[in-house]
Amino acid sequence: MDAPRRFLILLFVGLPLTGGCQSKVASPPDPFAQTPQKAAEAQQAGAADAPGRSISQLTSDGRLTGAGVPSANPENPALPEEKPSTWARLTSALSPDSVEKSLKEVTGRGANEAVAKTLYNEGEDLFREKKYDDAAKKYQEAADRWPDSLLAEDALYMSGESYFFDDQYSKARDTFDELTKNYENSRHLDRITARQFAIGRFWETKGRDHYTLTPNFFDKTRPWFDTHGAGIKVYENIRLSDPTGPLADDAVMAQATAYFFDERHEDAAYQYEVLRKDYPQSEHQKQAHLLGLQCYLNAYQGPQYDVTPLAKAEKLSEHTTKIFGHQLQEEMPRLEQAREAVRAQLAEREYDLGEYYRRLGYNRAARSHYGAVIKDYPSTRFAEMAKERSDSTVGLPDEPPDYFPWLTKWLGNRNKQ
User: Fold this and answer.
1) Which residues contact 33 (CB under 8 A, 6 or more apart)?
2) pTM for the complete prediction?
3) C-beta pairs of 55-60 under 8 Å, 24+ apart in sequence
């Protein structure tokens, strides 16, 4: 029989055995059916065969989990755990994880702690010799041979470090992302975040010199496409993976500033707002207030568009003056100019409404808006313009004439019905 056919037979024969078909597995022995000494020996013998016994299968109180420990129904500990259905066993056997596990066992690459430690030590030797690319691959193999363990966690971290020192920043980023995904509370999290921040800063800065859709074939320090955007994405991942870490606020500030220079004012304003609300103790608070105010002003498109950015700018300017007034001696003239600009634009919106009703002949409504400009924004140039327009409507009908009274009467009757 040729090798390919033999491999396929072994693969499909081995699938049900490794994929979780537990219907014919003998149940654990009853520990009370024997003497205490015999029961203890039986429990120890069963636990010794459990995979990952030395690292991953130990609970916080030192007890073993897995083989040798009777399972229990979590809803009622007195009842044994219900066995999965036939469909559940079949689907679990064909899941990607089960297929991958079966393939590894058939090809002799299954979980093996001794082999993993040997590979890890080889990676350490290569790392000390500054053969970082080879070291990264050894660490990856070590993590693959003993997954879900402290050794795998350390191996993934050292693999990312090796790629980082070899200037393969895309591979380093991917490895660090894999580590934070599999080990959310990793003890390497602070160092990983520092490496990711350095990569993000490098990409975000260097990416300004490259077009977004131009592929990168030769520079191993950059991703395939959109170096600048990839750097900004790294900042975002730092905040999501370590929101309370020492660099979380720096990542938000860096992302907001990148959007600011890209003239993506709404995105920048949102990130500055996140920094102001979620990181009140950040050293970037003052800059987040000043630059956030500028972003709101830049995002406003005129009296015919949404007033939300303008309203937020007015509120933020007052808050900034109240909180940082004693720290902004040099910035106070610029801050006052921004506040005056906000008031002028609000006055323009009110004046524009008055002009709209005046053109339609609704002079009473127009005078109402003109009066609001004169009362609320007397220091703006629109106050004088509003006074002139209001005076010009004196003596004119409050509303335009009804050219179709019969239609108005008919519609009025229809509305009453």
Assistant:
1) 39
2) 0.69
3) 55/113, 55/146, 55/149, 55/150, 55/151, 56/148, 56/149, 56/150
pLDDT at 322: 87
* DSSP label of 254: H
What percentage of the chain has pLDDT greater than the value 70? 75
Question: Which residues, other chains included, contact 8 with Cβ-Cβ below 8 Å and sequence gap of 6+?
Answer: none
> Is 241 in contact with 180 (CB distance < 8 Å)?
yes
Pair of tokens at residue 80 = 């044994």
Average pLDDT over residues 387-400: 90
Write down all domains in the chain, each with its CATH number in brackets: 8-20+87-110 (no CATH), 115-246 (1.25.40.10), 329-417 (no CATH)
Residue 256: the pLDDT is 97
The DSSP annotation for 269-309 comes to HHHHHHHHHH-TT-TTHHHHHHHHHHHHHHH---TTS-SHH
Tell me the mean pLDDT in the region 69-90. 59
For range 110-131, the mean pLDDT: 93
Q: What is the mean pLDDT of the chain?
A: 80
Residue range 116-133: mean pLDDT, rounded: 96
Between the alpha carbon of residue 69 and those of residues 72, 82, 112, 149, the distances in Å are 9, 15, 22, 20
Q: Please, which residues have CB within 8 angstroms of residue 355's CB and are 6 or more apart in sequence?
A: 366, 389
List Cβ<8 Å contacts ≥24 apart for 78-86.
83/22, 83/23, 84/20, 84/22, 86/23
